[in-house]
Model the fold of this input.
Amino acid sequence: MIDRETLAEVAVWNAQLGTDLAGQSLEALARYYNEAVVCPEANHYGAVAVDYLKRCYDRQRIYTRSSTKPDAIREGRETAYGFRTDAATKPLLIAGLEEAIRNRTVAIRHPATIHELRVFERSPSTGRMGAAAGQHDDRVIGLALALLAHKELGKIPPAGQQRPGPRIAAGMDYPVFSL
Done:
């Protein structure tokens, strides 16, 4: 999770859950953090979380993209929820993270995120991007998704009523969270 004012990493959550629980957990965390905007991956197991969020969370608080599926466009469903990570989109996603790190516009504080950034690699022969063998890149992708959602937030309206709470850091009135 990043604070939209400072672009500081303010919370990190990582767990191995059943696919049915991921959406519930993401919803609970987003509600806890002042109805945060969420940017889940929309492919693989993330599709189940996206489906849950569409049913149980404010759809205006879920990251959307333009659908490229011809059937969806024909049927008037041009908007798709979540970010689809694949060989074509991952380089763009990571480029945004690299830019934020290079320009020092993001503050990365969690030791596990820093570790994952250190073991994240790009194969010179195949161009494949991801964690080194035996490592993970979940936090790297999560941070990159949060930064992407922040960059595109012009199309996501602020929450109508912010809930007060002592656990919300100052300036964190409109956080972004990804799973």
About this structure: Confidence is low (pLDDT under 50) at residues 161-175. Helices lie at 19-32, 46-56, 70-74, 90-102, 111-119, 138-151. The radius of gyration is 16 Å.
